[in-house]
Design a protein that fits this description.
Blueprint: H1 6-15, E1 22-23, H2 28-39, H3 43-51, H4 65-68, H5 84-94, E2 100-101, E3 116-126, E4 129-140, E5 143-146, E6 149-150, H6 153-161, H7 165-173, E7 179-188
Antiparallel strand pairs: 1-2, 3-4, 3-7, 4-5, 5-6
Helix pairs in contact: 2-3
Length: 189
Amino acid sequence: MAGDDQTLIDGVRRLSPPLYPAIYPQTKAEIVQRYQQDYGKSWRTHLQSDLSPFTTSKSGNPMTPKNLARRFDPSRLHNVPKTKKEKAQYEALGRTLKPTPDTSKPPKYRYPPDGMTIGFIGQVKISRKWKSQSFSIHADEYGLRFYDYASGEEHAAEFLARPNGWDVMAVYFLGEETIEDYEGTFTVS
């Protein structure tokens, strides 16, 4: 039974929170929802005003907010734009809005600029005997390190995505000792 890795996971997440890809609202429904969230009851006025520069009337001039008001009439609100031109207008407006994180995709993580120090205090089981251990290693985008050894960039990214104590043990003991188990506390700074 390995030690509780939760303090390790929590510490790594505290220093390297998840980064999700940004997405911009693109459809009429997404943009209406965003404006309703941002502006409450006055969402129509703001949306009509913001959408106007991206639209053109038959004369080639931008449509007035008053003309655009018809699009957001309650009876037409859920109509899906049928023309490429109208869809492009919503996409252009969406690119001007603040993006939101796309949590449907897996997050990415980044190490802090100076990396992080991972400490361990506890017991490790080697050759069926428990021994007290206290050590620290350094982790950054180049790998988990102990003195001159670094585990490599690929391992560094994997550790950041799924931190676990076995990786820390493997780097510290460098395969010189076969760790059978460990119990203790991790610190991350």
